[in-house]
Amino acid sequence: xxxxxxxxxxxxxxxxxxxxxxxxxxxxxxxxxxxxxxxxxxxxxxxxxxxxxxxxxxxxxxxxxxxxxxxxxxxxxxxxxxxxxxxxxxxxxxxxxxxxxxxxxxxxxxxxxxxxxxxxxxxxxxxxxxxxxxxxxxxxxxxxxxxxxx
Length: 150
Description:
Largest sheet: 5 strands, mixed, barrel
Number of domains: 2
CATH class of the largest domain: Mainly Beta
Shape: globular
Structural class: alpha+beta
CATH architecture of the largest domain: Beta Barrel
């Protein structure tokens, strides 16, 4: 074989290999876009009314309360942008309010027992409540299943 012929074959082979590689990438990409991953599938929402205590996720998860005053610490954290949650009978529910967050709605209720209405979403064990309304709720008595006050 001559050098010219070998260069031509090598160049053609490289071109064919590149075309096959690009075609394979498009095929994989098209397949991936047709499959909905769990992150892209919308979670089903339920309209609910939940009661519980408004907490900030940092203090709730770490147990750290620098000021020792739970209400003040929760308010400070929510004001600073720490996500809020609702400590309920069904566990911790992350609270939000659409795309703007829920800090303005929840700040007056920091570490208080509240009734929250909204749409409850659940995915991979995480519960998220998109708040429609929040108001202070009376504590349940021991007979109603609440905690005793000392």
